[in-house]
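USER:
I wish I could look at a protein chain and see how it folds. I am handing you a single protein, as its sequence and its fold in token form. As I understand it, each token names a local backbone shape. I hope you can help me see how the letters and the tokens relate. The protein I mean follows directly.
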Amino acid sequence: MKKALVFWVEEYFYSPNPLQKLLSYFLFPLSQLYCFSMYLRFKFQTAEDFFIPIVSVGNLTVGGSGKTPLVTALAKSYKKSAVILRGYGRQSSGMIVVKDENGIHCDVNTSGDEAMIYAKKLPTAMVIVSENRKTAIQKAKGSGCEIIFLDDAYSKHDIKKKDILIHVKTLNDFCLPSGSYRERLWQGKEAVIIQEDIDFIREVHVNNPTSKMSLVTAIARPQRLDKYLPKVVAKHYFEDHHSFTKEELEVILHKDKVASLLVTLKDYVKIEHFGLPLSLLDLEVKVKKDVLKKFVF
């Protein structure tokens, strides 16, 4: 039931059918109230200067946009960087240093899947999860980091930072709950807007490929993977941040009669300890040099 609802909402936000479009128009007055309240929130906040370069990477809509590989690509350019994120879906709370110069300090249940990706992909970076970004910024700065990347923090208008927004195509242009927009790019708010295949490209590698694979993934809008996929026997989509069990994955292996499950890194960090045969769809981002100059320090 939960999975069906999640996929219905994703369709409603990004490619609504006529009935869903009618519903979005019916909810439009609520969207206007919501959008106005978010504008007032922006207008009456003052950005605090932490006297350290801070870059936020995200998008204006709900759902996935590919920010994790983009943040990874940018953070790799610096020796003493930090990545700070809320840690959505983690089974913990408060500020936790997931990784520092001494290595990884917790498991994926504590960190959340996206934070563990950063911990594994960024050998020299500090990774912190915290609901309070300001506390985490002070921690990173006090630890000697020279630049901080905030994962999905456009809405943190009380932090002085440079914003990078990934443009996401949608057929539903309204604010919540009529559409997918959490906020607008407000007048007076500076941001660099970039687009996939124009400002950055993805490079995809399949690690440990086998002759027969089934795709299993729990990311937002999983159809985004289609253009990167090798030949697969079947595709199994779960709701974003789904916590897999070994048993449900074994059922897929046996039902599809495949040699391995093809997963993204976001899935891999949650299931690698199961000891099942896995193939990794590893996505990396290459940012064009002229675009990089707009927001590097």
Q: What stands out?
A: The domain at 201-287 is CATH 3.40.50 (Rossmann fold). The chain is about 30% helix and 20% strand. The CA atoms of residues 201 and 286 lie 5 Å apart. The chain has a mean pLDDT of 93.
